[in-house]
């Protein structure tokens, strides 16, 4: 008899959510995690700690720039870096302990240690072999750095080191203008560092709707971030106290160097599957090191499943969570489903940027007839009151049927606003459906409705 119905390997957002759902569905479940705390990269060294620092640095920005405008007088607070890191660690602690509590409540066993799969139906942790009818790999991802760059997590750091620097640097070079580079770059810019972002492509945030990305770059530049685009980083040399980053500009092949206190390497992440024994087991992998799964997240080995960052698709915590819940349904003999067409993406800078569905560039490539409804937060009373009128909502709808195909928001609370469009898309709504839905006044969400109105007879406040 198997020890467990299901063993999940990894307790990040994909794995822990999956384990809890399996247990809720009546399966005897264990989750293997080697870290001292549950929650994976996201809770321990990723999404959650970075959001704490984004929140604290934004509060400082508000005090420095907007308090006096609201008649709030007094000196702006000074940064107590140790205090800020302690606040961040406290937030991590509350969240990781919360998952431990949820495991106990749902009767999920936490097997502490590093798991590997010696054979289908077996998970080895230390010297013990645990048997399971189904094994779900949720082992996540790790930063992928560049050749010629040695990360010491002190001077040359990945997102992990950037969340615990000894002090706020005077100068920081960020390699890569993706989500991590811009989120953490803007934290340090707000805390007083001079931040230069070096990006290989001619645009920031590749994949994002171009119009939004351009606007985003303008806003971040106004906040003091410097962008060097079309630049291929060649290498980084470190001394005891600083680093020199060498790069070549693609337009004329000229070589350049920049000296900095800290280098943040944010050039993407790669699936983390080392040590699982997948080679010996014969699990099929892609050229990019992703575990290949079928439509039910099963690998080519029967009873071995995989979800989250270690498989194909966007490396997003919420995508992993959805897959975790869906695969739990599958192994419980029910029907699990993820709608990959409606997965929101959010950049937690200030303003936030969010998106769902198609970009204009995608629709053009597909040759699809579409219309654009746009509304600037300048026309939104609440945003004006909050000094948050930079940005806009853009809704893309089918030209004939009016069905919503995508939405892109840059502005206040964009990461929350996007979800009403997600729900609308899940229900196959038209832009008019959104436009005819009463939105409370005064809220940021009125800007979403106005953009929907702009897909039809026109916005009111534009
Ligand atoms: P990314 O893939 O978003 O961006 C990496 C950037 O580095 C690209 O723009 C690329 O062109 C550039 N680059 C690559 N090689 C370069 C070179 N030699 N010189 C200059 N630039 C170079 O990767 P990032 O930001 O590291 O994030 C990794 C993953 O984590 C992504 O999948 C992201 O979606 C996910 N993530 C998501 C978050 C969110 O949803 N808010 C937060 C943090 C991470």
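Q: What amino acid sequence fits the structure above?
A:
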């Amino acid at each position: 008899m198997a020890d467990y119905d299901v063993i999940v390997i990894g307790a990040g957002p994909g794995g822990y959510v999956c384990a809890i759902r399996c247990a809720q569905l009546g399966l005897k479940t264990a989750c293997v995690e080697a870290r001292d705390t549950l929650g994976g990269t996201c809770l321990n060294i990723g999404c959650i700690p970075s959001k704490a620092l984004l929140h604290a640095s934004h509060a400082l920005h508000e005090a420095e720039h907007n308090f006096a405008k609201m008649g709030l007088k007094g000196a702006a607070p000074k940064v107590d870096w140790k205090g800020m890191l302690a606040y961040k660690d406290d937030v991590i602690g509350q969240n990781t302990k919360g998952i431990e509590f949820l495991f106990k409540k749902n009767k999920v066993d936490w097997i502490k240690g590093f798991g590997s799969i010696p054979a289908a139906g077996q998970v080895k942790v230390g010297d013990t072999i645990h048997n399971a009818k189904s094994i779900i790999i949720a082992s996540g991802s790790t930063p992928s750095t560049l050749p010629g760059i040695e990360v010491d997590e002190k001077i040359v750091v990945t997102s992990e080191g950037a969340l615990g620097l000894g002090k706020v640097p005077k100068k920081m070079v960020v390699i890569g203008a993706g989500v991590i580079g811009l989120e953490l770059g803007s934290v340090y810019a707000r805390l007083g560092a001079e931040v230069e972002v070096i990006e290989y492509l001619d645009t920031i945030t590749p994949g994002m709707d171009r119009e939004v990305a351009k606007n985003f770059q303008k806003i971040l530049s106004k906040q003091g971030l410097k962008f060097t685009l079309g630049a291929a980083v060649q290498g980084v040399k470190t001394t005891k106290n600083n680093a020199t980053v060498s790069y070549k500009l693609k337009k004329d092949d000229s070589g350049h160097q920049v000296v900095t206190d800290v280098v943040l390497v944010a050039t993407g992440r790669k699936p983390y599957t080392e040590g699982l024994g997948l080679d010996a087991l014969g699990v099929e992998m892609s050229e990019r090191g992703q575990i290949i799964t079928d439509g039910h997240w099963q690998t080519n080995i029967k009873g071995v499943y995989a979800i989250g960052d270690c498989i194909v698709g966007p490396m997003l915590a919420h995508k992993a969570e959805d897959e975790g819940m869906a695969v739990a349904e599958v192994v419980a003999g029910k029907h699990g489903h993820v709608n990959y067409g409606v997965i929101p993406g959010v950049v937690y800078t200030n303003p936030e940027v969010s998106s769902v569905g198609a970009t204009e560039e995608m629709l053009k490539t597909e040759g699809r007839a579409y219309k654009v409804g746009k509304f600037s937060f300048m026309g939104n009373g609440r945003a004006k009151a909050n000094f948050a009128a930079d940005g806009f909502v853009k809704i893309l709808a089918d030209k004939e049927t009016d069905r919503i195909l995508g939405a892109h928001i840059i502005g206040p609370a964009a990461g929350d606003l996007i979800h009403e469009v997600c729900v609308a898309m899940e229900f196959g709504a038209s832009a008019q459906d959104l436009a005819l839905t009463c939105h409370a006044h005064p809220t940021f969400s009125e800007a979403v409705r106005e953009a929907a109105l702009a897909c039809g007879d026109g916005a009111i406040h534009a």
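Q: And what stands out in the fold?
A: The longest strand covers residues 128-137.
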